[in-house]
Design a protein that fits this description.
Pantoate--beta-alanine Ligase, Chain: A,domain 2, 2 domains, 10 helices, about 20% strand, alpha/beta, six-stranded parallel beta sheet, binds pantoate, Rossmann fold, four-stranded antiparallel beta sheet
């Protein structure tokens, strides 16, 4: 694995590989790797000749009161972990390399960026869309891997690629969870002991909602209420939102329609840590197929 800090070097390497008729994969990250990131790298490694991972804590996607300064970092550990996964290029640009002067150009993806996390983080997806556009421009035609844990981000990136005709294939990879169901996230590092326990409420709320649908409930507000009640019962948790929306455009739904992919998505504050999670699901022939594991009772 080579670690590169400069855009021109990454571009040259990727171009050379493509000229030789080989394929390129990109895994965009902000580092502090956990099993979720490593799964993205492994999935990319299994399908492509060159795997490039970008590690850049992008300042433009953090709001002024958010956790940019505190965002966990472990450059040495990340380098070892990426090398272990057989990554070819680790791209670690500085802020100056990515933003040599304040940009006059930014990318806005409307509608799908407005609801859910967009309500409390109005500038977040603009920052994500802009930096992802820059990464696509740097790496060039490739397959890009994103985790489904950030489902709204995945939808934003898919729309960006479709609307602007990027020569990029976007692949969403299922969320990796801790044994008690907590979705892996770099921000889990902020949780202190009793908060870590309370944080399982996100998975419990999603599981209970899926359970209710499996029992035949098709009214989205009643499904939502199951999750709301569970979170209200956890004293350390503060609900930001729970929504049931269509998976492709994040439009809210009243009734769950057969054959349509939906997502139930939520954001919850546990102490001062904001956590998100979701489950995609489809109702087919009366059964609910959800991308959410069932845990064995402890
Ligand atoms: O999901 C992330 O880690 C970031 O939002 C991304 C896609 C790397 C853009 O900075």
């Amino acid at each position: 694995m080579i670690t590169l800090e400069h855009i021109a070097a990454v571009r040259a390497q990727c171009d050379e590989v493509r000229r030789a008729g080989k394929t390129v994969a990109l895994v965009p990250t902000m580092g502090f790797f956990h099993e979720g990131h490593l799964t993205l790298m492994r999935t990319a490694r299994a399908a492509h000749d060159l795997v490039a991972v970008s590690l850049f804590v992008n300042p433009t996607q953090f709001g002024p009161t958010e956790d940019l300064a505190a965002y966990p970092r472990d450059p040495e550990g990340d380098t070892r972990a990426a090398a272990n996964e057989g990554v070819d290029i680790l791209f670690v640009p500085s802020v100056v390399e990515m933003y040599p002067r304040p940009g006059l150009t930014s990318v806005t993806v409307s509608e799908v960026a407005k609801g859910l996390c967009g309500i409390s983080r109005p500038h977040h997806f603009g920052g994500v869309a802009t930096v992802v556009t820059k990464l696509f421009s740097i790496v060039g035609p490739c397959t890009a891997y994103f985790g489904k844990k950030d489902f709204q981000q995945l939808v934003v990136v898919r729309r960006l690629v479709e609307d602007l005709n990027f020569p990029i294939e976007v692949v969403g990879v299922s969320t990796i969870r801790e044994p008690d169901g907590l979705a892996m996230s770099s921000r889990n590092a902020y949780l202190v002991r009793n908060e870590r326990q309370a944080a399982t409420v996100l998975f419990r709320a999603l599981s209970a909602a899926v359970e209710r649908m499996s029992g035949g409930e098709r009214d989205a507000s009643r499904v939502r209420a199951v999750a709301v009640d569970l979170i209200a019962a956890e004293p350390m948790a503060n609900l930001e939102y729970v929504e049931v929306v269509r998976a492709d455009d994040l439009a809210p739904v009243d009734q769950l329609a057969e054959g349509v992919e939906h997502v139930i998505a939520l954001a919850v504050r546990v102490g001062t840590t904001r956590l998100i999670d979701n489950a995609t699901f489809t109702v087919a022939a009366g059964a609910v197929n959800a991308d959410l594991p069932r845990l064995d009772p402890l």
